[in-house]
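Dear U.,

For the methods section draft, I wanted the exact inputs and outputs in one place so we can describe them consistently. I've listed the two proteins in the order they'll appear in the manuscript figures. Please don't edit the token lines directly; just add comments below if something needs changing.

First protein:
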Amino acid sequence: MDWSDATGWWIVAGVLVAAELASGTFYLLMLALGAAAAAVAAHLGIVFNGQLLTAALVGGGGVAGWHFKRRGAPAALPVSENRDVNLDIGETVHVAAWDAEGAAQVSYRGANWAVRYAGSGAPQPGVHVIRAIEGSRLLLEASPHSN
């Protein structure tokens, strides 16, 4: 069985897409796009060197473009402070009293939680906002809406 150049490029593109699905990196998808462009070039009758150049320009350009796009984006918050990862961030709790070290116990979502004050100044009783989660401890700041 004789394979055409286009068939080889389509197989390379499929393998790269499968590798991307297994690894989760978007860069392999850009390389697969380059392989697909080379397959189209093969269908158009372009010689193998032209196919390689097409794959390199499209795939490499996609990788470089994606890299520069990501580099210009703002850095994500750490997981412990990221509301996209933990929906408790930004929720409010009521603290009845703080101890001398800025720690307390609160009831939140039907369970008792250890909390630590992570805001500025001295902690005061009242409504606080969850700013981060450190293990099983909530880190709190005073709510701007507390009375």
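Second protein (the one for the lower panel):
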Amino acid sequence: MAEFDPKALFSMSYGMYIVSSHLAEKANGQIANAVMQTTAEPATITVCLNRENLTERCVQETGLFAVSVLQEEVPMTFIGTFGFKSGRDIDKFAGVDHVTGGLNIPVVREWCLSAFEAKVTGRLNLGTHTLFAGEIVSAWVFKEGIPLTYANYHLVKRGKSPKTAPTFAFNDMK
């Protein structure tokens, strides 16, 4: 059984998040689905970011990132700002409810259930992407609710993947 059916990847469970960081005074953030808790002691999360994205460069240079957990009711226009526009062209945080955490990283509150700040403790070059591991230094719960899953984003909201997403090549298969 040596065949590869990429549709099998659609059965994996993912959440939808905003990963943010900063570079000098420039804040940036992006939508990501490749985020997970990896250890409990110390509390560590990992994020996987495309090396073409400004957010990846920010995390690479500062060694800091935040993850905000999107709620299921988030409108597609909000996702579009963080997922389909470049922080090189616009200020993604203009008019968005956010706070600055203890690491001086913008943390999105709007349409988010919770958030984490982390310091990078490891990184792995995956060619097109970088996998960052970070020890959580701050965490907040903003409200109760249902987190947005990648399945809901595609099946209910009919969302697509941007060209820098790991799942972009599969847009036509859905």
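Candidate sentences for the figure legend, describing the second protein: The helical segments are 54-62, 76-83, 150-155. Residues 54-62 form the longest helix (9 residues).

Thanks,
Y.
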